[in-house]
């Protein structure tokens, strides 16, 4: 497979499949946005400063507009962070989202990696990161991490950010999946923005709000950090539809709470059922996807057999430090989750 291939690439398959490769909210998008298209004005440029969009996000996270930047998905903001700080040697705990590495390499850099140990269930050790800060020019972390589904608690996040600040190292935390965690406030880093001007936190409407096609990302940092990012950013990267939709989704508390409850129930079900399959190693997760390891079969063979049954999984072998025994699955509807379990049992029996 391609070195930087992602999940969700359903367009290469001729038949309809249940897509477990993409970690999008299985409940879909909030119903409240259906009339948002009427609000979008397509005959004018969007507001280049995105005042209304930032105000919506501001109310949602309780930060000032000056602490917010918006972009064309979280991916734009990841690349922007690398470019604005001319990062050449960030520390990336891995396996991790492949775009961190790609953003650095395309900017002429060479990342340093901390291999998250499998024997501990892929739990990130904050001390391991802090002990390597003298070797790098920045830190990039997913919290919770993709593809492992593990999170770093607030006290450990602050410890890392604090030590990085002492060395004047910028740090980015990708929280694209943090809102799926039932007790997400134990993991989110937004409260640290006011005390640590080296911290940049990224989120997106893509995963939690079920809107990957809309391409809306948003990031948080000190006023000075956001100004620096804005200076390197192209104008109008968020379209009028995304701008209009934002005025509703961040107020839909019922949708958010329903999502977290559903994910907690279904990931508990999936984890329990997967652990009953002898041929699998199952890694516990906090969020809406899980990493699994085959004891004997190769993932390519499993993927091929599941496709015959109308199911697409994410071959995880292109993540750094993972091999051709690893795959990732997302939470879908309960009926689809049952189909996944039964299909895997059938193939592996």
Q: Please state the CA-atom Rg, rounded to the nearest Å.
A: 20 Å
Question: Major β-sheet, in short?
Answer: 7 strands, mixed
The number of helical runs is 10
Task: Tell me the strand order in the biggest sheet.
Answer: 2-8-7-6-5-3-4
Architecture blueprint of SSEs:
Layout (H helix, E strand, L loop, with lengths): L17 E2 L31 H11 L6 E4 L1 H12 L5 E5 L3 H9 L5 E4 L10 H5 L7 E5 L11 H13 L4 E4 L24 E6 L12 E4 L2 H9 L8 H10 L3 H22 L5 E3 L6 E6 L4 H10 L2 E2 L1 E2 L10 E5 L3 H15 L1
Parallel strand pairs: 1-11, 3-4, 3-5, 5-6, 6-7
Antiparallel strand pairs: 2-8, 7-8, 9-10, 10-13, 12-13
Helix pairs in contact: 1-7, 2-3, 8-10
Question: Which short descriptors sum up this protein?
Answer:
four-stranded antiparallel sheet; about 15% strand; Aminotransferase_I/II_large; Aspartate Aminotransferase, domain 2; about 350 residues; EC 4.1.1.81; threonine-phosphate decarboxylase; Aspartate Aminotransferase, domain 1; 10 helices; alpha/beta; single chain; seven-stranded mixed sheet; threonine-phosphate decarboxylase activity
Describe the structure.
The chain is α/β, with parallel strands linked by helices. It has 2 domains: 10-23 and 254-348, Aspartate Aminotransferase, domain 1, CATH 3.90.1150.10; 40-251, Aspartate Aminotransferase, domain 2, CATH 3.40.640. The protein has 10 helices and 13 strands. The strands form 3 sheets. It has a 7-stranded mixed beta sheet with strand order 2-8-7-6-5-3-4, sandwiched between helices. A 4-stranded antiparallel beta sheet has the order 9-10-13-12, with helices on one face. It has a two-stranded parallel ribbon with strand order 1-11. A hairpin with a 6-residue loop joins strand 9 (280-282) and strand 10.
